[in-house]
From TrEMBL:
Residue ranges of every copy of the ABC transporter domain listed in the record: 3-232
BP-aspect Gene Ontology terms: phosphate ion transmembrane transport
Organism: Salipaludibacillus aurantiacus
Pfam families in the record: ABC_tran
The protein, known as: Putative ABC transport system ATP-binding protein
GO CC terms, sorted: membrane
InterPro entries in alphabetical order: AAA+_ATPase, ABC_transporter-like_ATP-bd, ABC_transporter-like_CS, P-loop_NTPase, PstB-like
Keyword field: ATP-binding, Nucleotide-binding, Transport
Amino acid sequence: MGAPIPVLEASNVQSDFLRNINFNVSEGEIITLIGPSGAGKSSLLKLLNRLADPETGQIFFYNKNIKEYKIEQLRKRIGMVFQSSSLFEGTVEDNLKFGPSLFNEWEHEEGKKLLEIVKLPTDFLSKDVRELSGGEQQRVAFARTLANRPEVLLLDEVTSALDVKNVEVIEQFIKGIVSKEVKAVLMVTHDIKQAKRLGDRTFFMYNREIVEQGDTRRLLTDPQSGRLQAFLKE
């Protein structure tokens, strides 16, 4: 096997909400971001598809500065799912086809495939989103982002408001889509057990910095920094 292909890289990134950010993400990885509220986890995700920009430093996507991409293309290739599903009014299909339609890429059959990925019946395509449960709406939000065929998924507390069953379903398809549907996932979570279940590597953030990063099991069982040791005991 050859060397892992770098997908994302941050070099000396600083912003109003972050400082001294350095990391890289390779193809096939799920990265989990943990840390206390206000540590900068969500702020970091927003930089990666230019919902915000750093004051200094550089972020690269496939070895090219993200500022060199057209912003609509960047957000197509680096998709984001939030804690709230934020679906548009209308049917499930209306939501799924919104992004692809901007690029004249939508085909009806795509909708069925997307619902299969997120474990929803294909007859949901014609359902009004207001008829769906919270868990179903979040799965449609995932499918809507996947409809753009992103190479990277940014997930911000996507299961924190869901019941155990929906958490299990979403975790299952997150693991299933890496390498098949997307190249890498970066996921903010407050659930340490979830980080252990999903993360190949984990970034621990505190006070706007990545204090420690590495193999998830090593990081969570043998933390090197006092900050992380204290966080894991809380």
